[in-house]
Amino acid sequence: MSAALALICATGAANAAEHVTLTNGFDLICDHHSADGGRVRLYMDSGNTNFVELNALEIASSEHVDLPAEKPKTQMADVKLTPKDTRELLSRAGGAHNLDVDLLASVIRQESGGNARAVSRAGAQGLMQLMPATAAKLGVADPFAPGANINGGTEYLDGLLRRYHDNLALALAAYNAGPAAVDRWHGIPPYHETRVYVARVIHEFNRRVAARQMASAAR
Question: Is 111 assigned a catalytic role?
Answer without folding.
Answer: yes
